């Protein structure tokens, strides 16, 4: 009986060892699998809705240019890194199957370039260096430091098409309106606008069409009326016509051809009379 008992105990010990080894093997494989998942890199990065910043700039800002771990790199971390760029207003991060990262950005628009320092005023009120050499923006010709945030908030409501029609922006406050601006348009018109009515500026194209090619001053700050300028070329043409008309009245026989015909006619008449007399 004692020998049988000893044999059973040996079998149980062998079974326990096998189970332990199996469990360790499974654990090791599980660790390898988890480590593999954690180290799987980002495979594809898609940048959406960027107009000013280049794709690579945004990827560098996000600090994922080396395609780090898809799992360990969190969406919040990517978003926080990108938002440090002054050109970024908002950003949305999406992770999708296949280790793909989608970055949708909303940018702060450049509104104008300062004349003295050649810096850009962005739609969030921040001033940045014009290292992108943007030249198709209005030029801000004087200081707006006292009203910069309000300026940025107001002009950010102006659409790109209208903004491209502005050549220069001048801060032109008056006693009753500290938010008034004078805009020099590319077509030669002048526009007075106040920040509280800035959205009226988006109707500039239709206002210009109503002017039928004439130039003038458009008052959108108060009254909404147009003061048409006189065309100097028209006045010059009218003056020339009046001068010619006066010359004709003063010298009715000034035409050389008329004088020649008159002289010829007068010379012919005496010859006819003399012939008749001889007969």
- Content of β-strand: 15-25%
Low-confidence stretches: 254-279
CATH class of the domain at 110-232: Alpha Beta
- What's the β-strand tally? 12
Global mean pLDDT: 84
Gross morphology: rod-shaped
Oligomer: single chain
The largest sheet is:
9 strands, mixed
Could you please say which CATH topology of the domain at 110-232 applies here? Rossmann fold
Taking strands numbered 1, 2, ... along the chain, how are they ordered across the largest sheet?
6-5-4-7-8-9-10-11-12
Number of helices: 8
What is the CATH architecture annotation of the domain at 110-232?
3-Layer(aba) Sandwich
Write the H/E string, N to C: HEHHEEEEEEHHEEEHEEHH
Distance between the termini: 192 Å
Helix content: 40-55%
Q: Please state the structural category.
A: alpha/beta
Radius of gyration: 43 Å
Topology:
Elements: H1 2-39, E1 44-48, H2 55-62, H3 75-82, E2 88-96, E3 100-107, E4 110-114, E5 119-122, E6 127-129, E7 139-140, H4 148-155, H5 160-163, E8 166-171, E9 180-185, E10 190-194, H6 204-210, E11 216-219, E12 225-228, H7 232-250, H8 256-278
Parallel strand pairs: 1-3, 4-7, 7-8, 10-11
Antiparallel strand pairs: 2-3, 4-5, 5-6, 8-9, 9-10, 11-12
Helix pairs in contact: 2-3
